[in-house]
Amino acid sequence: MASRPAPHRARKRFGQNFLRDRGIISAIVRSIGPAPGERLVEIGPGQGALTEPLIEATQGALEVIELDRDLIPGLRVQFFNHPGFVIHEGDALKMDFRKLRGEGAPLRVVGNLPYNISTPLISHLLGAGDAVADMHFMLQQEVVERLAALENTAQRSRLSVLAQYYCCVESLFSVPPEAFVPQPKVVSAVVRLTPHSTLPYQAKDEALLFSVVREAFAQRRKTLRNNLKPHLDDAAFAELEIDPVRRPQTLSVEEFVRIADYIFDHTPESEEQNS
Questions:
Q1: How far is CA 238 from the centre of its chain?
Q2: Is residue 69 within 8 Å of 13, Cβ to Cβ?
Q3: For FRET with 191, which of 26, 27, 144, 208 sits at 20 to 30 Å CA-CA?
């Protein structure tokens, strides 16, 4: 049996908090339900607490992405007897997940994500399209609440709309600070994101959609009339059958898509293309 890696001091600049609670680890693995033959990719394996049960479930096949060079030798030693264990040294934010998938099966991505990169990393993965089959992440509970927030809730945000446009989002369970070393100052939670096989509401121009969502949430206490004034007047809102005095957190994904498509259809460039 391989020897355990030497103790590693968590690095603040990498946002490292190492999961130690065996019960929580088991609950995460059960939620993922890994199986032999699947392509699992773990982001930030750290000292291998989650890696070990994942590699057992997949019968030795697992890819990991690790940024901290000091952790990689320990991981190589710990899992040296698994020829299907592959380490990608680098930043997951810069990883091309479409290229990583290649011609193989879609990736199942998992990880205990550092709080400081969780939102941009999820946004990056959502842009990978059909390269990703599903995602299971441990995140700050506040981020999970924003990902899963439905319309008319205080947690509803730009991230909610982005995630729910592409995925079914499920908040699974909370994780207390005591489950980590060192202990973070916040409660964590596990979330599952499953990309839609077919988008329920396909925007005509996704870049425009997310630009509209960003503008709408730029000042979330203001109305749509104020935030989207450069694009829509009251007559347009009436045609859309959306009350302009509503606030952005009250809108569904479908309504945002409808707004973006209306703007697309009424811009001079798109009108010329459609004529």
A1: 35
A2: no
A3: 208
Instruction: Determine the Cα–Cα distance for residues 261 and 240; give it in Å rounded to an integer.
Output: 10
Q: Retrieve residue 173's tokens.
A: 């369970």
Give 98-140 pLDDT, tens digit per residue.
Answer: 999 999 999 999 999 888 889 999 999 999 989 999 999 999 9
Same domain, 168 and 218: no
| Res 1 pLDDT > 90 | no
- DSSP per residue over 184-244, as a string? PSS-EEEEEEEE-SS-SS--S-HHHHHHHHHHHHTTTTS-HHHHTTTT--HHHHHHHT--T
Please name which of 145, 143, 110, 137 lies closest in space to residue 191, comparing C-alpha atoms: 137
Residue 236 lies in domain: 206-274
pLDDT for the residue numbered 53: 96
Regarding whether 248 and 185 lie in a shared domain, the answer is no
**∠ at Cα 107 (106, 111), nearest 5°?**
160
Among 163, 195, 227, the domain-final residue is 195
108 shares a domain with 44: yes
Which stretches does DSSP call E strand in the chain?
Answer: 18-19, 39-43, 62-66, 85-89, 107-112, 132-140, 167-175, 180-181, 188-195
